[in-house]
Amino acid sequence: MEQITSGLQAAGHQADFSSVWRAVERLLRTHALERVPLGDGATQYELAGAHHDHVRCVRCHALAAIDCVLHESELRGAERASGWSILEHRVVLDGLCPACRDAQAPRSAHANCVSPRAEPAARDTASAARPARARR
Ligand SMILES: [Zn+2]
Ligand SMILES: [Zn+2]
Fold it and tell me: How far is the CA of 85 from the centre of ligand 2 (A)?
């Protein structure tokens, strides 16, 4: 919401938070805009279109659209198991985006693998080079 407001202001529009909120509410009511809950209280809004699900990076919080991860048969199975009628769904998968995965891989999952592109390991010298505390 703050992003929309600041984006409009950056584009030269007079936009205050409450008028943006009213517009978003109106678009949500007419289903022109969809709410994508991100699980930690944050919400992303996007234009409604063909159904898709999302994947979110747990590191940099980038959000990307992916093809629907649920099949009709799975939804029907969930209906049978729960007794509920499922009308719609929004799936947000947590993951690592390609940039964050590449940044993380040499240190964690592949720490013991021989990497084809050997990079010098970045060492944390700040903690090792801690100056001795002067005593009185
Ligand atoms: Zn990322
Ligand atoms: Zn889906």
Answer: 16
Q: Spell out the per-residue pLDDT of the chain, length 136, in tens.
A: 777 778 888 888 887 888 888 888 888 887 778 888 777 778 888 877 788 999 999 999 999 999 999 999 999 999 999 999 999 898 999 999 999 999 986 655 555 565 555 455 554 544 444 455 555 5
d(CA 74, CA 69): 10
Domains and CATH numbers, the chain: 50-108 (3.30.1490.190)
Query: Across the strands, what pairs with 37?
Result: 43
Cβ burial of 123 (10 Å; 0-12, 13-18, 19+) is exposed
Could you tell me the distance, in angstroms and rounded to a whole number, from the CA of residue 36 to the centre of ligand 2?
12
Non-local (6+) Cβ contacts of 32 within 8 A are 47, 48
